[in-house]
Amino acid sequence: MKLVPLSDRVVLKQMEAEETTKSGIVLPGQNKEKPQQAEVVAVGPGGLVDGKEVEMKVSVGDKVIYSKYAGTEVELDDVEYIIVRQSDILAVIEA
Amino acid sequence: MKLVPLSDRVVLKQMEAEETTKSGIVLPGQNKEKPQQAEVVAVGPGGLVDGKEVEMKVSVGDKVIYSKYAGTEVELDDVEYIIVRQSDILAVIEA
Amino acid sequence: MKLVPLSDRVVLKQMEAEETTKSGIVLPGQNKEKPQQAEVVAVGPGGLVDGKEVEMKVSVGDKVIYSKYAGTEVELDDVEYIIVRQSDILAVIEA
Amino acid sequence: MKLVPLSDRVVLKQMEAEETTKSGIVLPGQNKEKPQQAEVVAVGPGGLVDGKEVEMKVSVGDKVIYSKYAGTEVELDDVEYIIVRQSDILAVIEA
Amino acid sequence: MKLVPLSDRVVLKQMEAEETTKSGIVLPGQNKEKPQQAEVVAVGPGGLVDGKEVEMKVSVGDKVIYSKYAGTEVELDDVEYIIVRQSDILAVIEA
Amino acid sequence: MKLVPLSDRVVLKQMEAEETTKSGIVLPGQNKEKPQQAEVVAVGPGGLVDGKEVEMKVSVGDKVIYSKYAGTEVELDDVEYIIVRQSDILAVIEA
Amino acid sequence: MKLVPLSDRVVLKQMEAEETTKSGIVLPGQNKEKPQQAEVVAVGPGGLVDGKEVEMKVSVGDKVIYSKYAGTEVELDDVEYIIVRQSDILAVIEA
C-alpha cells in the first residue's frame, strides 16, 4: 500500500535523530526532542489550491526541514508518515 | 435513503481498524484510537466554492486519509458517515 | 406570516426524530440528541454574497443534513425554524 | 433628530413581543427573551463595502429577523435602535 | 497643534452627554455610560486602504454614532480625541 | 549604524512626554503612561505588501500618533526605536 | 550540509549580543534577552507565495532586525539557525 497525496500535500518520513560521540560511535536518538527533519516520500500534483496556483518544488528523496506544528501523522503498514502542505516545508537540506 | 453531498463535500465511511496477529488471525479493532482511514461513499459536484473553482479529484470507492479534526458525523439508517470537504482529504491509499 | 430569506439563506424546519421498534411501532424521538436533519421551507435568491456569486442548489421540500453549529433559531407563529447559509447544508437526503 | 446610516448599515427598531391568550386578549411581552424581530427604520446607501459592491435589498417598514449577536444598540431621543449590516438580516417577514 | 488623519481615519471628539429634566433644566452627563456620539473633527484623504478604494463620506462637523469597541483614544493639548476608521462610523445624526 | 526599514515599515522614535505647569515650568514626563506620539526616523520604500500596492505617505521628521498595540521595539546603539507598518500610523500632528 | 530555503523564506543566524564596558572591554552577552538581530545566511527564490508575487529584497550577509515571535529554530551540524519569511524581517542594519 502507498500514500498518494492530493493537491499541494507532501508525504514525509521522519529521519532518525542520531548522535555521534567524539569517538565516532553513532548512538541512535533517544529521549530527544523530535527533529523536524524528514525525507520526502511522495509529492502531490499541486495545481489550484484554495483558488491559487501552486507549483510543487520538492521531489521524492529530498531531505527537508518542516514547520514544527504542521502536518498530520498517519500510520500505514506500521510505518509512520507525516502529511504536510508544501508551504509547511521551510528548507531543503543539501549535502 | 442516500446522501447526495453538495458543493465540494465528500461522504466517507470509516474503515474498520483491524489488527492481524502474527499467526494471521484478524482481530477487529477495539479500544483503539479511531483511524483516519475511510472509504469514499459519495462525491459532491464541485464547482464554485466560496467564489473559487473546485474540481473533484476523489472517486467513490477510493480509500483515503482525512484530516483528524475535519468533518461532520452523520447517522442515516443506522450507518455512520463522515461528511468532509475535499480539501480535508490528505491522500488516497493505493494498494 | 412567512419568512422570506435574503441572500444565500435557507429556512429549515427540523424533522422529528423517530424510532421504529422491531415490531414496527414508531416512537416519537424523546431525550435524544437533536438530529441535524431538516426540511427546506424557503430558499433565498442567492446572487452576490460577500462579493462572490452564489447559485442556490437546494429547493423547497428537500430533506437535508446541515452543519451542527450553524444557523439561527427563529420562532414564528409557534413554529420553530432554523435559518442557515446554503454553505452550511452538507448534503441532500434522497429516498 | 434622525439616524442616517452609512454604507450597508440598516437602522432597526425592535418590535414589541406580544402574546395572545386563547381568549384573544393581547398581553405585552414581559420577562421574555428579546425577540430578534425588528422593523427597518432607515437604510444605508450600499455601494462599495470593504471593496465589494453591496446592493440594498430591504426597505423602510420591512419587518425582519436579524442575527442574534449582531448590531450596535443606540439610544436617540429616548428611543432605542439597533444598527446592523444588511448581511446580518436573515429574512423578511411577510404577512 | 492639530491632528491630520491618514488613509480612511477620522478624528472624533466625543459629545457631552446631557440630560434634560422634565422642567427643561439641562444637567451635564455624570456617571453615565459613555455615549457613542461624537463630532467629526478631521477626515483622512481616503484612497487605497488595504488594496481597496475607500471614498470618504463624512465631513467635519458631522455628528455621528460610532462602534463601541472601535478607535484609539488620543490626548493632544489637553483635549481628548478618538481616531476611528470611517467603517467604524455607523450613522450620521441629522437634526 | 542605522536602520533601513523594508517594505511598508516605518522606524519611529518616541517623543519625551512633557508636562507644563501653570507657571510655565516644563517637567519631563515621569511615571506616566507611555504616549503614542513619536517622530519618524526612517521610512521604508513601500511597494507590493502582501500583494497590494502601498504608497508611503509619511516622511522623516513627521510627528505622528501610532496605534497603541502595534510595532516592535528595537534597541540600537543604546537608542530605542519602534518599527511599525505605515497602516499603524493613525495621524500626523501638525504644529 | 547547507539549508536551501523554499519560497519567501530566509535563513538567519543570530548575532552574539555584546556589551562594551566604559573601559572598552567587550563582554559577550550573557543572561540577556535574546536580541532580534541576525545575519542572513541563505535567501529563498521568492516567486508566488499564497498566490501573490514576492520579490526578495535581502541578501546573504545582510544584518537584519526580525520580528520577535516569528520564525522556526533549526539546528544543523550543531549550529542554530532561524528560518523566517521575508515579511518577518523589519529592517536592515547599515553600518
Automatic annotation (TrEMBL), chains A, B, C, D, E, F, G:
One of its GO terms (cellular component) is cytoplasm. It is found in: Cytoplasm. Its main location: cytoplasm. PROSITE patterns: CHAPERONINS_CPN10. Pfam families: Cpn10. Heptamer of 7 subunits arranged in a ring. Interacts with the chaperonin GroEL. Together with the chaperonin GroEL, plays an essential role in assisting protein folding. The GroEL-GroES system forms a nano-cage that allows encapsulation of the non-native substrate proteins and provides a physical environment optimized to promote and accelerate protein folding. GroES binds to the apical surface of the GroEL ring, thereby capping the opening of the GroEL channel. This is Co-chaperonin GroES. It comes from Sellimonas intestinalis.
